[in-house]
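Fold it.
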Amino acid sequence: MPETRRDFYDVLGVARDADAKAIKERFRELAKTYHPDRNRSPEAEAKFKEIAQAYAVLSDPDKRRQYDAGGFAATDGFSQEDLYGGLDFSDILSGLGLGLGGPSFFDGLFGRRRPSGPPRGSDIELAVPLSLLRVLEGGMEAVRYQRARPCSACGGSGAKPGTEPRPCSGCQGSGKKAVSSRRGNTLFQSISVCDVCHGRGQLIEHPCPTCAGHGQQLATEEVKVRIPKGAPDGLVLRVAGHGMAPPVSGGAPGDLLVVVQTEPDPRFERRGADLFRVETLSIADAVLGTTLDVDTLDGRVKVSVPPGAEPDTLLRVHGKGLPVLGESARGDLYLVVRVAIPKRLSPEETQLFEALRKLEKRSH
């Protein structure tokens, strides 16, 4: 039987509208109890990982938004670096008297590897509009976009084929310069981008003619992304290695972040997994009741309107909304009743309404 996962808000014991300060304070409280250096019970490490994962998601506005929209299915695709890469647990837990053990302690605990070598390329965030039918059925979606890729002629080095860049003598290949100054007994040090190589760490004496020494070319690319059924607005789908080329040769490319965006549909308004549709009735149908032939994403269905339907009455059509992400259930379709008041009447209609008004007066 699969293990039941606890909601991240329940894990930390905070309300769903808790602010960042409350979430951090609660994490620090729980960390004092379950940190492996303080609690030696067999389940302490697993418990600490659970609260750390919950904190990593809920403390980041973007990850929290994705989790609120799609639950675990929206965050399960994150790598350890995606979850914890921007967190400094040593700083977050400072002052609690815990044996923090430095960054390597947390790298080992969460299975993280600290990045080394040349810097990676930037991520590309791309909003992709999806029809309600695509959200309903899921499947593969082709995405076209432009990104910088390593130059095909020089392989990204920026140097003319047959030549090599040389390390910058101004920064010894680091791309940065340290400037120190002393004021009294205090030594100040500032780090700036090398003004000789402009941060590349290399100098190119013979630029590649294809890319003019930049090492990159702008190209149009198409990738196919699997859209899960019921993908909520704002869901981010990560395509590893399809972002921008690295700034220097030898680095890894960034990732493509595909952000789901539901296209407007003239028939329906989406609210999560539920759909809303306005149905306008005549006065006679609102008073006497009627049967509507209604559009859904699965075809047309008949819906009974009870007599005496008032404006803004909601009629629920069960299971005719969108799938709930990660579940077999579907949302509902809600029909919002509007009543049309005729502005021009034929002589016969005027007589009928006059007769109705007289009947109403008699009944009172």
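The chain has a mean pLDDT of 83.
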